# Entry
Amino acid sequence: MRVLVKIGGAQLERPAARAALARAIRAAQAAGHELVLVHGGGDQIRRLSDRLGVVAAYREGLRITDGPTAEIVLQVLGGEVNRTLVRSLQEQGVPAVGLTGADGGTFSVKKHEPDGVDLGFVGEVETVRPALVEHLLAGGWLPVIATVAPRTGDADGPFHNVNADMGAGPLTRALGADALLFLTDTDGVLDAERNTLPELTPADCAALERSGVISAGMIPKVRAALAALGECPAAHVAIVPAAGDDAITAGLAARRGTRFRLAADGAQRAPAPLPRAAAGRAHETPREAHAGDRSDG
Ligand SMILES: Nc1ncnc2c1ncn2[C@@H]1O[C@H](COP(=O)(O)OP(=O)(O)O)[C@@H](O)[C@H]1O
Ligand SMILES: [Mg+2]
# Structure
């Protein structure tokens, strides 16, 4: 299977966690899966911002990304976080290459303005060109993608900050991936008694949000999972625990975590997915708006 894996900031903080993650990735590749990684790094952005005295500002949960913050986001996500993850993968014997949206024009963004609110340099994916990712996969490399990218048609402006959960869906679709796994620091989506919910429909998610059982970073993640499933109805979309050397294979087998479905009976009632883009060919996918309430998740 072709699998897009979104990695949360918590899995990238400590060397031991990065090594465990790299072993899980190696195990999934050994089982025959073709992987692409997308990562965030909100905690790392916050740390450097604090050190540089750049004051973080939020509006309705979204990080307002002014000029200095946009510089920090590019340097942290496209630099330290991306390169450190690539190094951990290499050390575990996984041939990895780090990319941003600019590399190969892999993706570009338009300004993300929820309800018309100006958040600065916050983007949502507008165009995906998977040619470079396809080329790397064909050569046996693991692409590791930081969700920072230029704005479409803007040659000199700042890179925009894209919430990694929100960016994962458009990439899944453009790559024709069979599965999208959000690796995180819980056992999946938990109910009020903290039991893992094995399956969720859009109606279940709306009820969990209304009742406050889903909060904080789980809100944009669940919304992004549903949006991705809406666009790729045949894909296996799940939020799964990152821990364990079998995290990815267990997530794909639905042995752990929370799987998303469009309907309760398991029938996928949306239209058939687009065919996978031809390998090595630039394929542009226009994007629609996505919901979410953190800009660097
Ligand atoms: N119902 C829920 N089930 C699981 N986690 C939840 C729930 N509601 C809120 N959360 C919080 O969401 C967090 C995961 O989101 P986030 O911190 O953004 O991580 P990531 O780096 O994976 O994006 C969990 O650590 C937990 O604190
Ligand atoms: Mg998050």
Observations:
- Residues 8-10, 40, 184-186, 189-190, 213-218, 221, 297 surround adenosine-5'-diphosphate (ligand 1) (CB under 6 Å).
- The chain is about 35% helix and 20% strand.
